[in-house]
Amino acid sequence: MQEKIIVLGSNGQIGTELVTMLRKIYGDDHVVACDIRRPDYDIKNSAPFEFVNVLDKEMINGIFKKYKPTQVYLLAALLSATGEQNPKLAWDLNMNGLLNVLDLALEYQVAKVYWPSSIAVFGPNSPKDNTSQYCVMDPNTVYGISKLAGERWCEYYNQKYGLDVRSIRYPGLISWKAAPGGGTTDYAIHIFHEALKKGSYQSFLSAETELPMMYMDDAIRGTIELMDAPADQISVRSSYNFSGVSFTPEVLAAEIRKHIPNFTLTYADNDPRQQIANSWPRSIDDHFAAKDWGWKPEFDLAKLTADMLNNLKKS
Ligand code: VAH
């Protein structure tokens, strides 16, 4: 059957690249980009775009009625740092946006739904190293709380109503095409821009703050591999742990110096994002993703760094 895919939150860091990849696979007209503002990236104007606010259930209903989607990706969210500046909006957008989509996906018999979670679902008492799929999860950011609650709702809609909803706990995502959206891991993007522009960067996370990260190319490929996997291979209906490469700002700076020898990295003190980072794991065990749908990252730190710098120089 012809796929008709709706991507809600298509202008974001993930949505920008996911829409491009999905259109490459299924064709422009089979992928409808939806957001509350027009795309400012190189998506062909002819390809379908709709203004949608995911908090307006009637608006989403109109789009589902118009396009009768076979797949829906819901990417709209407030991330960890911006969420702490506006906790109630973060909860409202991240939670009610999801519940609107889950309900309408049932009503319109959407075949598959995708919703991103995050390693932000882990908290201060979660294991820090090689953090397992199932363990203590006590997130202390609104973003993490909303993602943990959202995972529970996804599993509920799957088990109670049979909705085929799939999810991945993304680590910090690093990309060059679209601006990051207010996350705690965004230092690992800004550092590349500043290294090329000024040869220096001041990190808002401390030198020894090790966090799980991933290159966007890996994240997009893994997401589509998950969505393409047969339903009976999916054993995790909350959200899959997902791992790329973990590093600290200091280790990243050393890798950048292999390309920009005089690059200097300094550190800011008392940035509120440090507390958020301190509550997250240093590394993630993603063996369920490897076992269930053959996940394997392709970008290590050297390859990620080279690709970021090469593409930013050209863009
Ligand atoms: C954030 N980039 O920093 C996101 C991500 C694991 C972090 O979820 O909020």
UniProtKB/TrEMBL annotation:
InterPro entries: Epimerase_deHydtase, NAD(P)-bd_dom_sf, NAD(P)_epim/dehydratase
Gene Ontology molecular function: L-threonine 3-dehydrogenase activity
Domain NAD-dependent epimerase/dehydratase, residue spans: 5-232
Alphabetized Gene3D superfamilies for the sequence: NAD(P)-binding Rossmann-like Domain (3.40.50.720)
Signal peptide (residue range): none
Protein family (similarity comment): Belongs to the NAD(P)-dependent epimerase/dehydratase family.
PANTHER family in UniProt: L-THREONINE 3-DEHYDROGENASE, L-THREONINE 3-DEHYDROGENASE, MITOCHONDRIAL
Protein name: L-threonine 3-dehydrogenase
Phylogenetic classification of the source organism: Bacteria, Pseudomonadati, Bacteroidota, Sphingobacteriia, Sphingobacteriales
Designated gene of the protein: ltd
